[in-house]
Amino acid sequence: MKFLFAPLLLIFSVYASNIPLQSREISPQNMKKQNKEIAKLAAQELSKALPSTIDKYTKLISIKANDTTLIYIFEIDISPKSDESVKKEDHGRMKEAVTLGVCRNSKRFLDADISIQYIYNSAHSKSELFKFDINKEICFNTLQ
Question: Residue 86 class from Cβ within 10 Å (0-12 exposed, 13-18 middle, 19+ buried)?
Fold first, then answer.
């Protein structure tokens, strides 16, 4: 999953380096506008490599930006399990693993108030199985 974050860091670094030194102190409105643009550019760049197989069960099918949130949409092949059993049995484990991974690998985005959302859908029914919203406050509490 780390290979997905390298282009994001590059986009973030390039965009941030174009800010003139005298304007490093940015108003909250301008910061939010800048973060929206960073999220949009990151989603566009990362989407070029999609769909991408993560493992034998999981595919990353879409990345998009909504305001200052990067949204990753995955499909999971859960057969022969039902959607309900996966939601019940795997939610806690998935939430912990995803949150920890995002907190460790997306620190620059999270520190810049760009949130990340992971959505996992069933490859067969197309229904949503899990949705995890991760921001810097959640990571602060997770990594304590």
Answer: middle
> Mean pLDDT over all residues of the chain?
85
What is the token pair recorded at 31? 């910061």
| pLDDT at residue 16 in the model | 52
* pLDDT for the residue 21: 46
**Contact criterion met (CB below 8 Å) for 143 and 96:** no
Domain of residue 130 covers: 2-18+27-142
**Counted domains in the chain:** 1
Q: With 0.85 as the threshold, say if the pTM is over it.
A: no
Average pLDDT of the segment spanning 23-34: 78
